[in-house]
Amino acid sequence: MTATAKRIEQEIRDLPLEDMLVLHDQLVTSIHEKEEAHKLDPAFREEIQRRVKEIDSGKAEGVDALPHGPTRQYPRRGTVRVQRQ
User: Fold this and answer.
1) N-term to C-term CA, the chain
2) Are 75 and 56 in contact (CB under 8 A)?
3) For residue range 18-69, what is the model confidence (pLDDT) as tens digits?
4) Among residues 5, 32, 39, 68, which one has the fewest Cβ atoms lying within 10 Å of its Cβ?
């Protein structure tokens, strides 16, 4: 781990728990996006980005893809749900 990464890690450890959880969620999302981005067709990637923007703006509201399973809370978006068509 670089010195910068070690410094950032210590700063994160000093944050309030709520801030740590928000940051954790954002980092995990970012990691998954980077891992998957190179695998996606560019048109599909654009469609995903468009749908996320609609949810973020309040223009669209999703529906839980797993109605009988656990839901996931996102600090910025609340519970993100995917609507089946």
Assistant:
1) 45
2) no
3) 888 888 888 888 887 787 767 777 888 788 889 889 988 989 887 666 555 5
4) 68
> What is the spatial distance between Cα 75 and Cα 26, in angstroms, rounded to a whole number?
9
Residues constituting the chain? 85
Q: Looking at this protein, which amino acid is placed at residue 22?
A: V
Is-contact 37 45, C-beta < 8 A? Answer: yes
Closest CA to 21 of 72, 80, 82, 81: 72
Residue with structure tokens 């954002």? 26
pTM of the model: 0.41
